Amino acid sequence: MEMFKNKSVLLSLSLSVAVAFSISMIWIFGGSVLGSLKDLILPPAVDFVWWKILIVIAVGAGVGFWAEKVGLKKIFAPMVCFLALWFLASLLAAKFLGQSMMFIPMTLTVVITVVVVHLKKIWMIDSELTEKLVGLASTGHLLEGKSADLRIESGLKLLETVLPLSEAIVFRYTLDGRLNPVGRARNGGGASGPDSGSARHSSWRDKVEFCEEALRTRRTVIGHDDAECGAARIALPLIYEDVVIGVLFVKVEQNFEQEDVYLLEAFSGQLAQNFQRKELRGKTLPHQNWWSSFSTFSAENRLDIINLIHGIIKEQSFSAIASSYLKEAHAIAYLDGTLAYLNRQMRHLADLNAKEFYEIDLFGLLEKFKTDVFNEPRLAIRRVLQTGGSYKGELHFPETNKTLKMQISLVKVPDDNQSIHESDIPMKPACFLITFRDISAVKENEKLRSDMASLMSHELRTPITSIQGFAELLLADENLGEESREFLTIIANESQRLSKMLSTFLSVSNLEQSDKKEVSKTTVKLDNIVREVVTDYQETARRKRIRLVEQFNPHLPPIAADKGLISRALSSLIDNAIRYSPERTSVIISTILESDFLRVVVEDRGYGIHSSEHEKIWEKFYRVARDGQDKEEESTGLGLSLVKEIVEQHGGQVEVESEVGHGSRFSFKLPRL
């Protein structure tokens, strides 16, 4: 911008000097007309002095520089005063001193210099404006994604899915008044150019005349076929900004209704806009020559560019209108905190009236959703800006018994010369996207389901304990028959397994209902927890001829965690590894120090899990089906879900890597202090 200003000043000074020098030369050698004007100011005996040209040039340069800096409006009054004083000085100098003050050349120099500099400024502003219009139109082109020709094909495919078309033809209106077919769909086929055989068909002329009638009337023309039920042919003129672009011809086989016309007219309007946009981009750009600012043809092209930009802006505004149909509440805010857009759901959720809607900013909007958990909106915004990631949270409002899921995201866009449809390109922050979703019903259903499950689990514990106790009491009878003892053993084992499953399920339910802050965390050493759990499972592994291998990192920092819960999560992983590994294999337990986390890995050489089940195994009651699996190896399907819930309550993540026949690698990571 500074370089542009310096260039403009230098150009103004050059023009001013050229004007002053030209006027001086004309004044000296201009002939009788200027000579008679000179006699009005100069006495007959006074001759023109050559060195005075320097004075004229200096005044012209000064006036040009001043006109460049302040503009015509501010310089007009001082210029008139200066010329008036110069005129009086010229009269006095000629009468009493016999000297010429060169009033006429000075006046012409000042006036013409101001006019020339002003025209130059208008020309440069016009050139810059045209450049920006062309750039803006090109930016809109990057947003469109597809060309007009490709949009014909996709549009005709869309019509085929909605209407029983037998034929659809798109005609372009040429400059010589002919209709040129540019796209066609027939008998369910894709869009393509017209073939020469169809042009020779006897009905082709009728179709063209039918379309020409729509052009003459500039209205949709419908022809019904009485011989077939609901069959019709329709010609729709393609008109955009009162400019005729072409015609869309459609032939429907059956069940055509008047309501279908609205769809066809909307589609034809989109086609007309696409073709007009393509034609405008094909014109000569109005900024390619220096004289373009004074050309009527270039001026018309600039108007076309404005129409093009208007169409692009109108089309892009559909995305904002479409967001009003979403259930979620959305708001877009610029980086300075100004709200750019709020959809209808957001205005209703924030309870904004008409006055507040125009006065509120980003922080004022977030203030309306403050809770005990989300009590510092500024901290959330700062975190989003610093990390570039999204801020998520659940906000509960006890007074209305409403729960909202909130997300604040930093929207990033590519550079001006990059399309938004491209990937792997540098992105820069542009604005904030704030989303609220009402999950009150979901939370209520989850709570109801969890309460019901907990209630049933508690109620089932008593009869199961009774069954298990009486089964063990009967097994103590030495006179019990072999067959009865076998049945009672099965009853005791199954009741014990069911009791264990209920305990695990209750643990998961209690963790799901508790908030992360309710987990009792203390400073613990993760390697000590791992060592204790591995020691507890050495005997179990030895009975199955499995070797537990410890790989500890001696330099692990402490973590804040609930020792009992972490021990339980690790126990579940080691128990699964032992249970689903064949004999004479190893289970490796290792701890790894990462940048912000401590990771615990349990790796086995067992059966493995198919990749399609890696996400499902963390769900409650999901069990991996294996051929030949022993009854004793059957699980409740709750162990891994308990691990996941415990780790997430501590702010960590669970992961699994597994391949069928080659074992599994389960791990979880916890944030370090």
What does this structure look like?
The chain is of the alpha+beta class and 673 residues long. It contains 21 helices and 17 strands. A hairpin with a 3-residue loop joins strand 16 and strand 17. Helix 5 runs parallel beside helix 10. The longest helix is centred in the first third of the chain and has 42 residues. The relative contact order is 0.04.
Give the topology.
Elements: H1 2-29, H2 32-41, H3 52-70, H4 72-97, H5 103-144, H6 148-162, E1 165-173, E2 179-186, H7 196-199, H8 204-217, E3 221-225, E4 231-240, E5 243-252, H9 259-282, H10 296-316, H11 318-322, E6 329-334, E7 339-342, H12 344-349, H13 354-359, H14 362-367, H15 377-387, E8 391-397, E9 402-413, E10 428-438, H16 440-475, H17 482-513, E11 522-524, H18 526-536, H19 538-543, E12 547-551, E13 559-561, H20 563-579, E14 586-593, E15 597-603, H21 639-649, E16 653-659, E17 663-671
Helix pairs in contact: 1-3, 1-5, 3-4, 3-5, 4-5, 5-10, 6-9, 9-10, 16-17, 17-21, 18-20, 20-21
